[in-house]
Amino acid sequence: MMGIATHHPMDINPRAHLHADIRRSVRELCRDFDSAYWQKLDETAAYPDAFVAALTQAGWLAALIPEAYGGGELSLVEASVILEEINRSGANSGACHAQMYIMGTLLRHGSDEQKQRYLPAIARGELRLQSFAVTEPTTGTDTTSTRTVAERDGDRYLITGQKVWISRMRHTDLMLLLARTTPIAECKKKTDGLSIFLVEVPQGAATVDGAEHRGLTIRPIRNLVHHETNEVFFDHFPVPAANLIGVEGQGMRYILDGMNAERILIAAECIGDGYWFIEKARRYAKDRRVFNRPIGQNQGVQFPIARAYANVMAADLMRYEAAALFDHHKPCGAAANTAKLLAADASWEAANVCLQTHGGFGFAAEFDVERKFRETKLYQVAPISTNLILSYLAEHVLELPRSF
Question: What's the whole-model pTM score?
Answer without folding.
Answer: 0.92
